Amino acid sequence: MAKEKSTKLTALRCPTCGTLVLRDDEDFPFCSDRCRIIDLGKWASGAYRISSPILDPEVLEGLDDMHRSGHNSGDDE
């Protein structure tokens, strides 16, 4: 049995400018190094955001414990 998928993506649109980019292109999935740098700059400036925070369950437990005990960061007077 061969592990072969006949539905492989061969082309996508550049996420920055929308130009069609083939899988074999050097800068895939971007059309150029310029578009790759523009995209990186958007991530670095905060223009792109993950819609909700991803937290470790242990971290959530620690936050709940702090909240219940009345310790809030920034309220130290």
Mind explaining what this structure looks like?
- This protein is mainly α and 77 residues long.
- 32% of the residues lie in helices and 8% in strands.
- The chain has a domain of 39 residues: Erythroid Transcription Factor GATA-1, Chain A.
- Strands 1-2 form a two-stranded antiparallel ribbon.
- The longest helix is centred in the middle third of the chain and has 13 residues.
- The radius of gyration is 22 Å and the shape is elongated.
Topology (SSEs and partners):
Layout lengths: L10 E3 L6 E3 L10 H13 L11 H12 L9
Antiparallel strand pairs: 1-2
Structure at a glance:
The protein is mainly alpha-helical and 77 residues long. It has 2 helices and 2 strands; from the N terminus they run E-E-H-H. The longest helix has 13 residues, at 33-45.
Strand line-up of the largest beta sheet:
1-2
What integer is the average pLDDT?
Answer: 80
Assembly category: single chain
CATH architecture of the domain at 11-49: 2-Layer Sandwich
Beta content: 5-15%
Any descriptors?
single chain; 77 residues; mainly alpha; Erythroid Transcription Factor GATA-1, Chain A; two-stranded antiparallel ribbon; 2 helices
